[in-house]
Amino acid sequence: MAWFSAFPIRLSQEGDLKGELPDELGNLKLEKVNVHNNSLFGTIPIPCSILSTMNMMELSANQFLGLLPSTIGLSLPNLEELYLGDNRLTGVIPCSVTNASILTILNMGPNVLTGAVPNFGNLRLLKRLLIEENNLTGESSGLELRFFSSLTNCRYLELIEVSLNQLNGILPASIGNFSISLQVFRTFGCHIKAAIPDEIGNLSSLADLYSDSNQLTGFIPRTLGKLRCLQRIYLEYYKLDGFIPAELCQLSNLGDLYQRNNMLYGSIPTCLGELKSFRRLYLDSNQLESTVPLNLWNLKDLLEVNLSSNSLRGFLSSEIKNLKVVNQLDLSQNQFTGDIPSSAGSMQSLHNHFDSKKAKIIQKLPKSEISLGVAWRRISYLELRKATNAFSETNILGSGSFCSVYEGTLYDGLTVAVKVFNFQSERVTKSFDIESEITIRYRNLVRIIGCCSNTEFKALILEYMPKGSLEKWLYSHNYFLDMLKRLDIAIDVALALEYLHHGLTFTVLDCDLKPTNVLLDQDMVGHIDDFGIAKLFGQGESIVQTKTLETIGYIAPGDVPYRDS
């Protein structure tokens, strides 16, 4: 390859280079190498000492593979920008990279890098860190992700992108000490656990917060209201609960608010309707109630609104006609009363298809159904088939006489358990009907997310429980539960039963409680599953005794005491 010899100071070419980078490249006194978006392959040559003159290396969007040179940071003392993303590099990030002390941009994603994220604290001039879409992990000892703390030494940091890695840890409170210049913080899909630290409210320049599809719990920090530059908040597909904090109304620049698929409850703050900057609002698949604030329909620049799968009620205002430019509107699976306002026909961007099918507004359900908390997503057979790899055996989580359960990933990235009923008998159909009726949302009950039902196929889409069943943890030789954890799970089950028996206006008897029907989430919290043979007792009914149709492993609770309603 002779093309490199013609560039004594700078090598810059895009689109038509092929082959391997020659070792002789190290003999040139290059300042910049920019050969991104080509068809180069092979390993990256170990830099020679002559490359000490280089201040920019751009090798992204090629087909490089193999390990990074272990001395890469030692050989490039003047390097300011390093771009290695969108290749096939493997192995760890060499610790020597932190010796490139004047580095301002470090881009190593996406690749197939592994190992723990190193301490980047020596890169004090760093402005942009991009290591997304690899297989990087947190430290082997402890849950706290200490590499985030090391970044507090980088006082010029503007962007952190670590999404789609396997960090499996906790955000430290020290993130509140990041540079005041930080504008973008992206950590989505990293298996980050626990709560979002309140200290995040110290990041006064933050504009983009992308931390969806993790395992965060707890409340949405009220301190987010201090981030007056915030334009985009993505906190979806979590287990966040509590109210939507009214402090978010202080974010006058907020354009996108995504808080879907959490466990938020209460009302939608009325003051959100004062945010004229809103473009996209996604609060679907929560437990929100009350009415939709009237001033929300006055946000004339709203493009997308999804409030579906909640318990919102009341009439829809005719002011909905003010959403002139909205192109996606989903209000389905709520408890709205009345008809769709005739004024909705003026919403031109919906192409005048604002009806019960396109706009997905449903009528108020009978009182008996409302008390059961029906708020589901309708999911097509085609989506379920793709989600489960055509119901492949490799996706099976378990099976029984009534059904088979498959792990699947929906179009929006949500991992679910798909319970497919064996369509063979009237008893199976009755089991599906009973489980469909009992859709109570409670911390220690497995939540039903949606369903797919027609004359030939019936399935329930359930909250995915990554730790499997209690049966596995009690009786498999390679699993272990200490006494305290067993007690915690027993308490979880007891709380669920207490709620089913006494926490509702009706009584639910499980009738098939056993270790295989107690499932454990990521935090080893117990959830009762499978109400296929449960019994419901409404007001006016006395529970004297019940004949159970228990299956193998059933834990008999003893005699059911007489209770006069």
From TrEMBL:
Residues 391-565 form the Protein kinase domain. Keywords: Glycoprotein, Kinase, Leucine-rich repeat, Membrane, Repeat, Signal, Transferase, Transmembrane, Transmembrane helix. GO terms for cellular component: membrane. One of its GO terms (molecular function) is kinase activity. The keyword Transmembrane applies. The keyword Transmembrane helix applies. InterPro entries: Kinase-like_dom_sf (IPR011009), Leu-rich_rpt (IPR001611), LRR_dom_sf (IPR032675), Plant_receptor-like_S/T_kinase (IPR051809), Prot_kinase_dom (IPR000719). It is found in: Membrane. It comes from the Eukaryota. SUPFAM superfamilies: L domain-like, Protein kinase-like (PK-like). Pfam families: LRR_1, Pkinase. SMART domains: S_TKc. This is Leucine-rich repeat protein kinase family protein. It comes from Forsythia ovata.
